[in-house]
Amino acid sequence: MSQQALAEAAGVSRQTIANIERGSYAPSVYLALRIARTLALTVETLFPINADEGDPQ
């Protein structure tokens, strides 16, 4: 799925999706759920938490 198609399905801009992919933007829980549902994945699969990275702020 393209960034544009995912953005349209999630109701955000393509740039928002690009920023999430780069790790420069942390989506809200609601947006993370919409993206996961669109891709038929779990939020945990899309946004794994690495214990070595600490708390993303």
TrEMBL record:
SMART domains: HTH_XRE. Residues 1-46 form the HTH cro/C1-type domain. InterPro entries: Cro/C1-type_HTH (IPR001387), Lambda_DNA-bd_dom_sf (IPR010982). GO terms for molecular function: DNA binding. Keywords: DNA-binding. SUPFAM superfamilies: lambda repressor-like DNA-binding domains. Pfam families: HTH_3. It comes from the Bacteria. PROSITE patterns: HTH_CROC1. PANTHER family: DNA-BINDING PROTEIN (PTHR46558:SF12), TRACRIPTIONAL REGULATORY PROTEIN-RELATED-RELATED (PTHR46558). This is Anaerobic benzoate catabolism transcriptional regulator.
